[in-house]
């Protein structure tokens, strides 16, 4: 059997590159700069100390774009082998791992030039000696090699020039304006000088110093300057980053605003100084949504497109390292700058809360510092855990509103009615020494002071009479002493009652089929849930009501008005029955005030 080498259909491969691998034809320039930089690095390995890349864009005087370098160059044998063999690269080491000082590794980069031109012409002279060579590759898959001699050869210095004549449609990508902007975007931080030759013949050096490569040695102002450009606004703060195992350094900019929920901030990533991606998702842990990073790395591995990173253990290690830096920042804030921590939490609390619900790392970090509203003012969870290891909470804002007045100051109730609060409070038990439990209205009421034994009889009588006065309103009465004494009564419900009440409100508004259905759901049964009116034994008015020996005509309307007042104070919605009761009770009170019998209406 005869073995035959595979045939490569070059147009098909180029099509594949342009459609499926690269984000667009503009990457041709990145690939050329990268090859030039690698060639200079290779020559520097042999003791050379110079290095310059020159790019001449397409212009009024020439339809050709030229990228020249004074790197290692290629001899005749290397040209045929390296330039014309798809997938062959000089830059992989023996273990097939990318070398940290070389950018290329796949042996396909040069083909990207076919996305804008039908021919690639390479003039090259090896630094190791030998005659220069011209290599001509064509998009139809053929190439030719021509050794140069005489004056033609004398004109070719050590290094390589790549010459492209872009197709008319693609020429704009090789114009001075595009070349300047692409070269800056991709390569302004490369450690090699890059000049763009302008139409007037003058060179513009595009190199800039990357502040994020060595952030520890930069001033805060320098770091913030870059951050301002990156975020388009003043960063909240700049956090220097370093993950030495993967040669990654950079800066995380804390956003001064809350990003949309769930949005992980994409990072700007440079590989060996060359832009890999302006917006890479996978670099940060999920909970790092509150920063936008810029990093340079030498130890992470690009995919063939060079626009993403391979999700391998190096990336995972880097993610962990960056997470650790963010965690350190938060802990430092908590320890040394609590006011800044509070400002940070005020901006990002919703996002932090949403992620801490399911992310252990963030929960452990942030929970102690989260602030909650309680019946005794606001406090952080750490403060609450220290003062009240057994903590009770209300699970809705409604519930909090009605339970808060019942809570003793030494046993406050936490408002866990806002989004994420309840699951976070429950999680707090894993990270802080505390037990949290949902507060129960009747238990709280039981904890309130019972009136003294000597007055029990009067209290029981008052409860019975008030019960009777409220019977048709599905409300029971109870008497306790609580602060402040000016409040005559509180209305207390448990969750079932609140739910039933809400359905009744809807039914009243809905009418028709829906209304009928809902009202049937709640048609008062013997065991129908009842709210409770808790009368305050410390209140003068309540005592006076209790003191009325006879069933005075004012008792029932007074209790019913107290009931409606308590509902309103607790911001409960009034049902139709409640409104009816109020109108009727007020009518009777007005009659009593002017000395008329209830029925006496006509003159
Ligand atoms: N300017 C240059 N100077 C010297 N050699 C070059 C130059 N450009 C390309 N080469 C040689 O041609 C080979 C193939 O280049 P190509 O850009 O296709 O792949 P690569 O750079 O090795 O890898 P990648 O696909 O990751 O870019 C290189 O490995 C290098 O040996």
Automatic annotation (TrEMBL):
One of its GO terms (molecular function) is ATP binding. SMART domains: HATPase_c. ATP binds at residues 31, 35, 69, 160. Gene3D superfamilies: 3.30.230.80, Histidine kinase-like ATPase, C-terminal domain (3.30.565.10). The keyword Chaperone applies. InterPro entries: HATPase_C_sf, HATPase_dom, Hsp90_fam, Hsp90_N, Ribosomal_Su5_D2-typ_SF. Pfam families: HATPase_c_3. Keywords: ATP-binding, Chaperone, Nucleotide-binding. The keyword ATP-binding applies. Residues 24-151 form the Histidine kinase/HSP90-like ATPase domain. Belongs to the heat shock protein 90 family. This is HSP90 family protein.
């Amino acid at each position: 059997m005869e073995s035959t080498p595979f045939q490569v259909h070059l147009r098909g491969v180029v099509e594949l590159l342009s459609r499926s691998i690269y984000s667009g034809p503009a990457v041709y320039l990145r690939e050329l700069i990268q090859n030039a930089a690698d060639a200079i690095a290779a020559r520097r390995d042999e003791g050379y100390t110079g290095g310059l890349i020159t790019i001449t864009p397409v212009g009024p005087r020439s339809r050709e774009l030229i990228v020249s370098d004074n790197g290692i160059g290629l001899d005749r044998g290397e040209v045929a082998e390296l330039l014309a063999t798809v997938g062959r690269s000089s830059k992989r080491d023996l273990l097939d791992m990318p070398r940290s000082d070389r950018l290329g590794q796949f042996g396909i980069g040069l083909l990207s030039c076919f996305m804008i031109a039908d021919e690639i012409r390479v003039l090259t002279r090896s630094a190791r000696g030998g005659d220069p060579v011209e290599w001509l590759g064509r998009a139809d898959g053929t190439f030719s090699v021509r050794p140069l001699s005489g004056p033609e050869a004398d004109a070719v210095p050590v290094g390589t020039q790549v010459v492209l004549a872009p197709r008319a449609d693609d020429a704009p990508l090789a114009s001075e304006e595009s070349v300047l902007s692409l070269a800056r975007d991709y390569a302004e931080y490369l450690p090699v000088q890059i000049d763009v030759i302008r139409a007037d013949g003058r060179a513009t050096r595009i190199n800039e110093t990357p502040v994020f490569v060595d952030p520890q040695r930069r001033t805060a102002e320098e770091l913030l300057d870059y951050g301002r450009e990156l975020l388009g606004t003043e960063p909240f703060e700049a956090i220097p980053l370093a993950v030495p195992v993967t040669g990654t350094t950079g800066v995380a900019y804390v956003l001064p605003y809350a990003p949309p929920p769930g949005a992980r901030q994409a990072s700007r990533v440079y590989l060996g100084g060359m832009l890999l991606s302006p917006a890479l998702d996978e670099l940060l842990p999920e909970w790092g949504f509150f920063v936008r990073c810029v990093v340079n790395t030498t130890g992470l591995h690009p995919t063939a497109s060079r626009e993403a990173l391979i999700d391998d253990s190096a990336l995972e290690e880097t993610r962990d390292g960056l997470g650790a830096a963010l965690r350190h920042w938060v802990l430092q804030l908590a320890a040394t700058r609590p006011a800044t921590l509070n400002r940070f939490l005020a901006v990002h609390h919703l996002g932090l809360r949403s992620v801490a619900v399911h992310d252990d790392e963030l929960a452990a970090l942030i929970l102690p510092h989260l602030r909650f509203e309680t019946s005794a003012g606001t406090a952080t969870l750490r403060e609450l855990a220290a003062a009240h290891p057994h903590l009770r909470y209300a699970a809705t804002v409604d519930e909090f509103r009605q339970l808060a007045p019942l809570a003793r100051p030494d046993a406050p109730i936490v408002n866990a009615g806002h989004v994420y609060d309840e699951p976070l409070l429950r999680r707090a038990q894993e990270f802080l020494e505390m037990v949290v439990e949902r507060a129960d209205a009747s238990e709280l009421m039981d904890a309130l002071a019972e009136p003294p034994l000597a007055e029990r009889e009067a209290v029981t009588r008052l409860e019975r009479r008030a019960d009777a006065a409220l019977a048709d309103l599905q409300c029971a009465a109870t008497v306790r002493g609580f602060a402040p004494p000016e409040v005559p009564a509180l209305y207390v419900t448990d969750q079932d009652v609140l739910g039933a009440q809400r359905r009744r409100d809807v039914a009243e508004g809905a009418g028709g089929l829906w209304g009928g259905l809902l009202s049937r759901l709640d048609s008062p049964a013997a065991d129908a849930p009842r709210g409770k009116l808790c009368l305050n034994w410390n209140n003068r008015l309540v005592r006076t009501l209790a003191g009325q020996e006879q069933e005075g005509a004012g008792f029932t309307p007074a209790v019913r008005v107290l009931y409606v007042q308590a509902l309103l104070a607790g911001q409960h919605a009034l049902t139709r029955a409640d409104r009816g009761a109020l109108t009727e009770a007020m009518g009777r009170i007005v009659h009593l005030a002017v000395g008329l019998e209830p029925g006496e209406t006509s003159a």
